[in-house]
Amino acid sequence: MLPKGTRSLLVEPVLQVQNSGANQMEKIEGFVLLASGMSYAYSDKDRAWIGALANKFGGKNLSMDL
């Protein structure tokens, strides 16, 4: 299922926060999948950037009807 030559993989959940009074619930809406041909682990800076990108998608309907 992954492209040939993939050597590292990072999955970051896309969360939707639902406010219900003082209690906040998080619902996973999807994920950002990053596949790389490099064999290194992702740095903290890489993870922060990918997390920020996932947060931008949170709460948005990105599904497409095919």
Task: Give a description of the structure.
The structure is a single chain. The model has no long low-confidence stretch (mean pLDDT 77). The protein has a two-stranded antiparallel ribbon. It contains one helix and two strands, in the order ββα. Helix content is 21%, strand content 41%. The chain starts with 7 loop residues before the first strand and ends in a 9-residue tail after the last helix. A hairpin with a 2-residue loop joins β1 and β2. The radius of gyration is 15 Å and the shape is elongated. The chain has 66 residues and is of the alpha+beta class. The protein has one helix at residues 44-57, and strands at 8-20, 23-36.
List descriptors.
41% strand; 66 residues; alpha+beta; 1 helix; elongated; two-stranded antiparallel sheet
End-to-end distance: 20 Å
Strand order of the largest sheet: 1-2
- Overall mean confidence score, pLDDT: 77
Strand tally is 2
Largest sheet: 2 strands, antiparallel
Helix/strand layout:
Elements: E1 8-20, E2 23-36, H1 44-57
Antiparallel strand pairs: 1-2
In short:
Helix content is 21%, strand content 41%. It is built from 1 helix and 2 strands. The longest helix is centred in the last third of the chain and has 14 residues, at 44-57.
